[in-house]
Specification:
This protein starts with 25 loop residues before the first strand and ends in a 41-residue tail after the last helix. By secondary structure, the protein is an alpha/beta fold. One of its GO terms (cellular component) is extracellular region.
Amino acid sequence: EDGSAAWLRYAPVPHAANTSRITPSEIVALNSTKSSPVYTAGQELQRGIAGIFGRKLNVSAQASSALSTIVVGTLETFTDAYGDFDEAEDLEEDGFFLCATGDKVVIVGQNERGALYGAFEYLSRLAQGHISSVSFISNPSAPIRWTNEWDNLDGSIERGFAGPSIFFRNGFVVDNVTRVAEYARLLASIRINGIIINNVNADVQVLSARNIEGLARLADVMRPYGVQLGISLNFASPEDFGKLNSYDPLDPKVDAWWANVTNQIYAKVPDMAGYLVKANSEGQAGPLTYNRTLADGANMFARAVEPYGGVVMFRAFVYDNHINETDWKADRANAQLEFFQNLDGKFNDNVVVQIKYGPIDFQVREPASPLFSALHHTNTAIELQITQEYLGQQCHLVYLAPLWKEILEFDLRADGRPSKVKDIVSSERFNRPLGGYAGVVNVGTNSTWLGSHLAMSNLYAYGRLAWDPSLESEAILQDWIRLTFGFDQKVLNTITDMSMKSWPAYENYSGNLGIQTLTDITYTHFGPNPASQDNNGWGQWTRADKFSIGMDRTVNNGTGNAGNYPPEIANMYENIETTPDNLLLWFHHVPYTQRLKSGKTVIQHFYDAHYEGSAVAQTFVKQWESLKGKVDMERYEHVLFRQVFQAGHSLVWRDSINEFYHNLSEIPDDLRRVGNHPYRLEAEDMRLVGYKPYSVSPFETASGYT
Ligand code: BDP
């Protein structure tokens, strides 16, 4: 159990009696072409049933009249072979119909991909011991359900925590693509249909002839899983790679250059999903250099991929990372609206503006980005981060579905009407042709995929929510636990409890009340460093001084950011009384002695929350230890190591943050804990062998500064 099977373990179901309940004697997969997802579905059903029930069924491509079969096909092939059926008309693109009664199982996809999804759904049910009869249709919430990998051509991964890239090595696409196929299989099982395989900070060399050949090899192994390949582009490629003297999107030479490159790629990868573009952000080139709009830039790529049905994901993460800290009206949270609001309706229909869930950058808590409610004539997608960049980097357990759900279920009240984020990105609310989900994943060659077994619940939940955002976080989690760790009730209860407590705990011991995560902001984004959250050009600021803390984003006195929301929401955030406590410091600058709705002062809440959050992290170790013998040793030890680390690091967090604000405000903790470091073992108290004292930065991370 090294984690490579993830949730597709197909472990035997515990009660032998169940084996007699699955009686189909053969599998009919109505396509014998090996690159076809229907063929894959047949193979997968065979593999899964062999694992779960120990029975090897034959797979045939010929429709059979035998009563006890599992038939999988597309709407077209199924009706050709077996005639019409009632549910057919309700199927939407990528959707499937699954009907299992006794020994007869019918799986029909609206297309090939849908058929494969139906097969995975059936297997997931079997693997979880659900063998009762079912008959239902399932359709996706949105057409775009992609991952974004931030892999560099040299094989490193930006914000990757699980070893080097599975896609690239030494400047080129890897030779051995086996693991890419395995990854595509994993993603297909959660109904992800596209992967952008390279970093948004894109290297122009992805367009080299050798790499385009490589893309074709990657696409070939992903195709049987219905996963399309896409790439990130560097806006300056015409100049830096093509040797033109410009990359102006309105220059016909540049346009022709992109059309030509795109034709070359589609010649090798006829079903390429499209392009992802990060422009004019954090030093990346873009159309603004030529006084062209971001829409001019996006539409240039859109024209190139349009003949092939390709899509351009254009990131709304546009800002200048040299923001002037002394300008009190400056606010990075306003950048998205400043750049995109006036472009609504100016993007081609195959462009999707990809918006991070909040206005800043994957923080432990942010309000939903107001841009979702501002673009009514533009396709949008939400960008989520499975990679725990600011959230413990896979060394802390943080189950993210509850965070994503808060955003997806948030009602932005555009035009005073129900406007939940999930209904905007599904394309429904503003009746758009496209919309969906982009999840930053960053798998690596580590057998666990993400570097941590428990972090895989996040990838699983991402796919499930992209398909159906109305699912509950806990229900998704429990499916994942059963598939990953089996049927033991104590295992289920314990991992559920730990996971559901994990985001609140992390928020408590990192940054609470909407102050942002308080990690080191200069580069690592990992441990505590509240001082770095001011005096930096990135615009992630706490505005903390001796007396008060928080960003004033009101229209009245602040940066005006609250006014970016539709009126009902704007009014809520404009006023301290109606702003929820958990976003108080996001929208308001208040004295440390400000009373929260709970009655506590801001500073006392800080102290208490940090003690509470880190205390919860201590219990994760005990909880996990209680599963010894119920989880295989390999995964048990791997997880235990991380939980012990998290328990320790949460104390470092607690003490650094509390001491920092204690020093700054000079307001004592009511319970006089700050400065005492309960539970903590000091390096200074140990006899050091092979270690030397070292002055740490930031100094608060060690109680004695060393
Ligand atoms: C920031 C990451 C950086 C990414 C950037 C982005 O730290 O590595 O390049 O987001 O999303 O949060 O483009």
